[in-house]
Design goal:
3 domains, eight-stranded mixed beta sheet, Jelly Rolls, about 30% helix, Alkaline Phosphatase, subunit A, disordered N terminus
Length: about 575
């Protein structure tokens, strides 16, 4: 409504101006309406109920409750660090059991949520978007709990996909009127249009460090950033909490309060703008979000509901932007471990005592089995209850780098399945199936399948191939035949700043060296696989790159990767007799 009204005003004003300017403004008006309509037609306010939903969500039962709070992106190691360093916070988590060795299903919400709902990770066979929608809608453990007589509500359903027999609402509906949401979305659309229409030199000003122009001036400060909004949501629930004699309740709250951007200062006040994506700022955001969560726990205690409420505090995935402290691995692989290690903590009914850490190799798909074990009213189709502290299992983590287009895609480019066979922080426990036929050539461009073989230290594939990023770039292969073999690499070097040298190591054995310079910036290099490696089921090739350089540091571009070797292709073949 807001954007359409603004467009009409522009159109009317244009009729009074000179002809050429009038034509320009008319075209601009048409463009604004055309670009805005898909966003406007999908806006939240169109589906919100007319009445505020706070009372419904805040109503708990004196006959028992299940409270599940999912804080998106809350990495397990940061959660543990924040809680153990804050005595008051640790004390407030009375009766909670924390499981640090938890493996997620994926680095983003898209493939994580179906696994949380159903216990099943994505294993291919159907389009990924279909897997998401059908699994959440038809195979959720929340439906089982609803069948057991629990009044079940899910707050903030992802992509508006709601499990069967579960009522779904938005946090916006619990905090403000439909009119207020419509106003906010109108301001957001206007800001987006200003950004799109601004000249290149003014786009940063229109973006305003994520605060935007109109929203920063006209929006209620509680609603500018999702993290702030969802922390206030928890506080509002605590304030509005009531007790009813009706059937037991289940409430699943999916919150974005620990998700980037980071927006709080150390006092948990709004910092005024988005903060740098550092571990310190992430920890501050986790601390502030847990403080709001504690307010909800305090309200449960004040209403004598705490002992009658089973609570699960979890994340859908960890944080890829933060290196995990649970591993000795460094660089990009430490970030993968961070993404694969979400928070998982529970408070059973009647549980007493201080916050404690438990053992077990937990999978995020164990949520359903754990919930059923806590409530004793259902049986999950998959997973093992965390209360059993299982060991000796294989946990599947589907790794990929996110693109928004994946929400509607049939496949995810670069999806790489890893089997985690043991503690998540140990590199040797990360196993991926990288089958390759002896005689096969692997294309390292974006059209190829190189991500299956890229182990660590590689960028995303590009149209021509893939750059290394950092001093170590590793590949892993599982040949179909155990025969004496050799590997041929077609590659280039980042020779702009000077010569590139890389030592080549196969299964811990040095096998040669790559040297490139401006006189020879690219070439073909062949290395024999050591006999003992040829007899092994897995071949691991490491490129130890001496002094990789960043184009950004050299003033060549804004590319901050540390480049060394750019790989076009790899071929493995049998050695000639």
């Amino acid at each position: 409504m807001v954007i359409a009204g603004g467009a009409v005003l522009v159109f009317i004003a244009s009729l009074r101006l000179e002809k050429m300017l009038a034509v320009f403004l008319m075209l601009l008006t048409a463009g604004i309406i055309f670009q805005s309509w898909p966003t406007l037609s999908a806006s939240k306010w169109l589906t919100l109920p007319d009445e505020v939903q706070t009372a419904k969500i805040a109503e708990f039962s004196d006959k028992g409750n299940a409270l599940i709070v999912l804080m998106d992106t809350m990495a397990s190691d940061v959660f543990e660090e924040v809680v153990t360093n804050d005595a008051a916070l640790s004390k407030a988590l009375d009766g909670f059991i924390f499981y640090p060795d938890t493996v997620g299903a994926s680095p983003t919400t898209f493939l994580a949520m179906p696994t949380i709902h159903s216990g099943q990770p994505y294993r291919g066979g159907i389009p990924t978007a279909q897997f998401f929608s059908e699994t959440v809608r038809n195979h959720s453990v929340l439906t089982k709990v609803a069948d057991a007589g629990y009044r079940s509500i899910l707050v903030n359903p992802i992509q508006n996909v709601c499990p069967a027999k579960v009522e779904c609402v938005l946090a916006d509906a619990a905090m403000r009127s439909k009119r207020s949401v419509a106003r906010s979305e109108g301001l957001g659309i206007l800001d987006a249009m200003l950004f799109r229409l601004a000249p290149l030199g003014l786009k940063n000003a229109a973006y305003n460090d994520g605060e935007w122009i109109l929203q920063s001036q006209l929006e209620d400060k509680r609603f500018i950033q999702p993290a702030m909004k969802h922390n206030y949501f928890l506080q509002d629930l605590a304030t509005a909490m009531t007790v009813s004699p009706g059937a037991p309740t289940l409430k699943f709250l999916h919150l974005m309060n620990t998700h980037p951007p980071y927006v709080f200062d150390k006092g948990c006040n709004y910092a005024g703008r988005q903060q740098d994506r550092t571990r310190e700022n992430f920890s501050i955001q986790v601390k502030c979000s847990l403080d709001s969560f504690v307010k909800l726990l305090e309200a449960l205690k004040a209403h004598n509901l705490y002992d009658q409420t089973a609570i699960v505090l979890l994340a859908d995935h960890g944080n890829y932007g933060i290196e995990s402290t649970r591993t000795s691995i460094e660089g990009s692989r430490a970030k993968v471990v961070g993404a694969a290690n979400p928070t998982f903590a529970i408070k059973p009914l009647g549980s007493k005592g201080g916050f404690r850490t438990a053992g077990g190799e937990i999978y995020i798909g164990d949520f359903g089995a754990t919930l059923c074990d806590l409530l004793k009213v259902c049986s999950a189709d998959s997973g093992i209850s965390a209360l059993k502290e299982p060991y000796g299992r294989t946990r599947l983590f589907n790794y990929y780098r996110w693109k928004n287009e994946f929400w509607r895609a049939s496949t995810i480019a670069g999806l790489t399945p890893y089997e985690v066979r043991g503690p998540v922080g140990k590199k040797e426990n990360w196993v991926k199936d990288a089958p390759i036929r002896v005689g096969q050539t692997i294309d390292f461009s974006e059209k190829g399948t190189s991500t299956v073989y890229a182990w660590t230290g590689w960028s995303q594939p590009e149209a021509w191939g893939t750059w290394s990023d950092g001093p170590l770039a590793s590949l892993i292969m599982n040949p179909d035949k155990r025969v004496p073999s050799r590997i041929t690499l077609q590659l280039q070097g980042f020779v702009d700043p000077g010569p590139v040298r890389a030592s080549v190591v196969i299964n811990e054995k040095p096998v040669g060296e790559i040297v490139l310079d401006r006189t020879k910036p690219s070439g073909e290099f062949t290395f024999n696989v050591p006999n003992e490696a040829s007899a092994d089921s897995t071949i691991k090739l490491d490129l130890l790159i001496a002094d990789p350089k960043s184009p950004k540091e050299l003033g060549l571009s804004r590319d901050d990767r540390y480049l060394g070797i750019g790989l076009y292709s790899l071929k493995i073949e049998a050695q000639e007799p």
